[in-house]
Every structure is written in structure tokens, then in C-alpha cells.
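Sanity check

After download, print the first record. It should look like this:
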Amino acid sequence: MEKDLSKKSIIESDFSEEGMLTIDVYQTPKEIVIESAVGGVNPENIKISVNDDEITISGERKRENNISEKDFFYQECYYGKFSRSVVLPVKIKPEEATSGIKNGILTVRLPKAK
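Expected C-alpha cells:
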């Protein structure tokens, strides 16, 4: 059975109600670091929830221009709500977590618990 690969079917099949944020997670001797490309997302639209063994990053990327679907040749960038939850590989100190955005990359630093 062939799948209809029209633009509309690709958009509907590839994206659910909420997109999944792509992330890199790595460790240093003292912390867990999470990085994610969040270009085009207003920092005020990002929420980070952390406890001692899990983190959830959620937000929304909003399109600034109202463009009709019929005017797109390609539509690959995701706009809308997104989130990502990760169970951390080690316990961390959530009260000491820090985050920042530089050059469109969100970096969250989670100090490891002893």
C-alpha cells in the first residue's frame, strides 16, 4: 500500500499535537548538562521543571508571520507547543540548577548530588 506523500499528509503524520524537543545530555565530573536548539523560541515561553531525578522542558515556538498553507513549498520547521521529559541517570541538586540561552542553544546545568 502506498502512502500519500502530499504536503498536508506529511505535516499531519509527522507532527502530533505537541512536538518533542531534541536534546543532548552529557555529564562532567560535577554535573549533568542538557543542551537543546531552541532558535526562534522566546525565552519567556520556556518552562523548566526539575526534581532530584527528572527534568521536563516545555515551551512554544510561535510563527511571527501568518503564512497561508498554500504558499509553502516546504514546511519542515516545527511551530507550536513542545516538551521533553528525561529521567536523569544520577540524582541531582534541583535547587542549584541553572539555565541560559546563547546563540539559540538552551543549556541547563544540573549539579550532581553526592
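If your output differs, re-run the checksum step. Summary of this record's structure: The chain has one domain: 7-111.
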